[in-house]
Amino acid sequence: QYATTGCSLTLHHTEKPKHEAICEYRPYSCPCPGTSCDWEGSLEAVMSHLMHAHKSITTLQGEDIIFLATDINLPGAVDWVMMQSCFSHHFMLVLKKQEKCEGHQQFFATVLLIGTRKQAENFQYRLELHGNCHRLTWEASPCSIHDGVSIAIRNSNCLVFDTATAHLFADNGNLGINVTISMC
After folding, report:
1. Hey, how many other C-beta atoms are within 10 angstroms of the C-beta on 69?
2. Residue 160 φ/ψ, nearest 5 degrees
């Protein structure tokens, strides 16, 4: 199905649906969490789409930045999204607050590469929360936007913490997360 966009595999018809679901050449969906955007396009068009359709997303340059999530006490499910540009690539930083069990909210922080799964293997990221006498750190390889935030959360490929921990590190309801991207 994706031969026109570069896929060269020829498969038996029974194997085709499974491959098409994970094919690197299938169109990319809008990676912006918390929106009902149904945009699809090529990998090369993703950043242009984000800059034009999701203008509220801030982009910071450099391999070491601070991702500031404001008003973490907002009720209900909330997504904070930011972009980080370094090493000639763009990374989407996401902090997601959602209810996991009745009345129990959790925060999920992860980094996605605006790129392929193979490209994502070339990078590592570190998320750090700092507070008085406390430090919480998570290190991992970013997921590709092909996989998305929900896959990262489902696979526990993210920093997970509860509301009490968020409050431990927050300053007036704002949470600063140090984000460092490095090449492997």
Report:
1. 24
2. -120, 130
Number of other residues whose CB lies within 10 A of the CB of residue 74: 12
Q: Which amino acid is at 168?
A: L
Positions of E strands within the chain = 28-29, 40-41, 58-61, 64-69, 78-86, 89-101, 104-113, 123-131, 134-140, 143-144, 159-162, 175-183
Rg for the chain, CA atoms, rounded: 17
Architecture of domain 53-183: Sandwich (2.60)
Residue 76 CB: number of other CB atoms within 10 A? 8
By the 8 A CB rule, do 126 and 138 touch?
yes
Question: Given pLDDT bands bounded at 50, 70 and 90, which one contains residue 158?
Answer: very high
Please, is 157 exposed, middle or buried when counting C-beta atoms within 10 Å of its C-beta (0-12, 13-18, 19+)? middle
* Residue entry with tokens 């009902």: 36
pTM for this model (two decimals): 0.87
